[in-house]
Amino acid sequence: MEERFKFLDLLKAYAVVMMIQGHTLSAVLEPEAKQTFFYQFLHILRGLTAPAFLIASGCGLAFSLCRMKNQKTQDILKKRITRILPILIAGYFLHLPRFSLYQLLTQTSGEEIAQLFQCDILQTIGWTILILQVFLIFIKEKRIIISSSIIVLLLILYFTPAVNRSISSPNFLTQLLTTKFGSGFPLFPFSAYLIFGLIFGLVFNEFYARIEIRRLSILIFISGIIFFVFSFLIKLENFNLFYFRTGLLLMLISLFLPFEHKSGKVLDFFVIIGQESFLIYIFHLVIVYGSALNKGFVYYWKEELDTFTSTMLALGLIYLMLLLGYVWHHFKNRKPVVSKVLRNTLFALLFVEFVTNL
């Protein structure tokens, strides 16, 4: 299966738009305005963005397993590490308290170290895929992968409260596991969404070749409704929210799936946005929250702007980020060598600055 599925890119494009508006409004909108029904509704939609990215990443892993099943293990590992390493580097770069290796080693406080090791969406994607890939070296049978993944997913959700209670101090490992010390999306419970994406992708791959798109989208929509309803029936901590989010996202996927074999300017535009979601994710966070190199919206207008101004700022940033993703996509496709040189030169300059800056 060589094709790239449009529904995954559309899912990520949806997540990109919701993510930008959510982060921008959360950062700059005054507290009183956050009590409105409309903001709370947007907040619920924003809550789907991280699970959407994680499920899409899990699906991508599943589809790559199908494509690379006849390749050597060492080649698979090499490709996987090559793709995951930039994700992890970007994730930890966004949490750097100081853009200086010397200062990081000699002047960093305990709080800043805890900040550096915080686990957000990129770290969860990177570490979960690497851990899964280790197990997938030894497990080749698809049915065993699916059944064992279901067990691991349920165990992660079940033991999340116990993990949170058992951790008492922040360090590299504990920051990967709990939200107690500032991590936004630790492995417990958020790796469960990526594992769900792996399961969904493997099952989807089996049905895709045998069932027409329309019937398949109906099956996925019904599955989403079942998950959604079940979320209100189950009382176990973490399980209800997991089923609530995955149910809504399954219904959303079912709406995107019929576009799989269609084309058009608007559709193709959002497919491109989904493909460039990694770039957009990094740039919008740097603009909204800042980094070790710059100050963001939150520094200048933290919860100070009214509804109209905040909305205009969010819409402006959405437009800017979509434009960035679209332009970069076409540039790197038309000038692949030049784009790689520019990208690698930027990385090299940042690395030299980080190492030599005192």
From TrEMBL:
The chain crosses the membrane at residues 7-29, 41-63, 84-101, 121-139, 144-163, 183-204, 216-236, 242-259, 266-287, 307-329. Pfam families: Acyl_transf_3. GO terms for molecular function: acyltransferase activity, transferring groups other than amino-acyl groups. Residues 6-325 form the Acyltransferase domain. The keyword Acetylation does not apply. It comes from the Bacteria. Keywords: Membrane, Transmembrane, Transmembrane helix. The keyword 4Fe-4S does not apply. This is DUF1624 domain-containing protein. It comes from candidate division WOR-3 bacterium.
